[in-house]
Amino acid sequence: MKILLTGVTGYIGKRLLPVLVAHGHKVVCVVRDRNRLSLPPSIVPLVDVVEADFFDKATLQAIPLDINAAYYLIHSMSTSEKFMEMEQQCAANFREAVERTSAKQVIYLSGIVNDAALSYHLSSRKMVEEALQSIIYSLTTLRAGIIIGSGSASFEIMRDLVEKLPVMITPKWLRTLCQPIGVADVIRFLDAALLNENTFKQNFDIGGPDILSYKDMLLGYAKVRGIKRRILIVPVMTPKLSSYWLYFITSTSYKLASALVDSMKVEVVCRNNDINKLLNIDPIPYNQAIERALAVIDDNQIVSSWKDAFSSSNINFRISDFLNVPTHGCFKDKKSYRVVSHEQCLENIWRIGGTNGWYFANWLWRLRGFIDKLFGGVGLRRGRTHSAEIAPGDAIDFWRVLYASKEDSRLLLFAEMKLPGEAWLELKIRGGRLYQTATFRPKGLLGRLYWMMLYPAHIFIFRVMAKRIASD
User: Fold this and answer.
1) Contact status, residue 243 vs residue 257, Cβ threshold 8 Å
2) What are the tens digits of pLDDT across the range 181-217?
């Protein structure tokens, strides 16, 4: 079968793609920026990549007409005032594009929307479902609550809270009930529903066997980890204060924290489990989902992470727009050292950031990250998804990977921290030498003052950093 897959660079799409390929499907991946899509060499011959933007109808002509089914996995946690309108428009454009094809089914992964009073984002998901309805193809909607898996936003926030805080003073929404589900089971449902006529023109709630409060989930994580935690619930913490609490304690961005707090006040419990019998799937319990997620993290085998999504930062851009580092009107700091070993130097480059740090003055990098958080930036808490692998689009602390090629011995990063300008960091090996270039394009007088103030520190930090990457 020929399957259209959207959201392939996202948390769920990146995990669903290899499953579809393994089952013999030809997958057409629709991406807004093909530079963000990094495919394993083994599946490249089995995948077609189409560059299209569902906000630009003209680009949708590139979608092939001979597809059999499609997945709609597009969703943003933006807090823009036009967020709901944008989500609906995107879904409507997708529907019109698919209606021109031979697709029999569209599968949409949504949120559980059974509560009478929905949050802003859950309301948007319900309206997207309505916008996807068609008389040309059959819509199957799978509605999930909290997804538990390595790299999921909910799991990583829980992990941050439990690992960092022996005692938590928390808002009252921790009493809200939900029905979490393991990410592997979400993928199983998405796969099993494909072209299954028993799921056509229907919506289903999918969840694990446990109905828990958020407090139960945090304490359940602590039990699996074998650590003791106390949670005190107070009624006076406002949504805004709750959002700031999540923002400063965890690795989440403020806009994502706000969206999560808004949604966590709503019960997300399944209506029934009819879909389990229909597709012969028995979801694993919550504690097993936690154990699996921790095992994947321990083995350093995280497939996808919310931190690599653009929603984890404060900006959204096309990687291709920043691949060519500017020269006009820019300040540059250049360092070059002869490498002791090409292979070791390349390995050092590929392990930069995250828990491995920046090879020198890590406390200053952490201080810069803390200052960035104070001003609403991403800080250093995103770390990196994998300790030794890098792909375009990945997040590394407060940087975004623009280009990463071991064959070319080159890594190019773009800064997502709060800056009065734009910044790039390039590391490449040429002719037995490491070339490290920091580029800053200032915006106005403030940008120039910023560079001049930090330049003395940059000279020292970047020099030692480059020397250690080349020689260690």
Assistant:
1) yes
2) 999 999 999 999 999 999 999 999 999 999 999 999 9
Mean pLDDT over each residue of the chain, to the nearest integer: 87
Q: Is the pLDDT of residue 363 over 70?
A: yes
111: amino acid identity, one letter: G
pTM for this predicted structure? 0.82
The strand ranges marked E within 102-251 are 105-111, 138-144, 147-148, 167-171, 177-178, 181-182, 202-206, 212-213, 230-234
Cα distances from 33 to residues 7, 126, 316, in angstroms, run: 11, 27, 11
Nearest Cα neighbor of 397 from 442, 351, 437 is 351
Most confident stretch, 298-302, 328-332, 423-427: 423-427
E strand segments, 302-445: 331-338, 395-396, 399-405, 410-415, 421-430, 433-442
Place of tokens 């009624």: 235
Domains and CATH numbers, the chain: 2-308 (3.40.50.720), 313-471 (3.30.530)
Query: pLDDT for 387-418, tens place per residue?
Result: 888 888 888 988 999 999 999 999 999 998 88
Placement of tokens 């446990």 in the chain: 210
**Nearest to residue 75, comparing CAs of 271, 320, 385, 310?**
310
φ/ψ bin of 432: left (φ > 0), alpha (ψ from -120 to 50), beta (otherwise) = left
Strands (E) across 37-172 are located at: 47-51, 69-72, 105-111, 138-144, 147-148, 167-171
Residue closest to 203 by CA, chosen among 111, 134, 266: 111
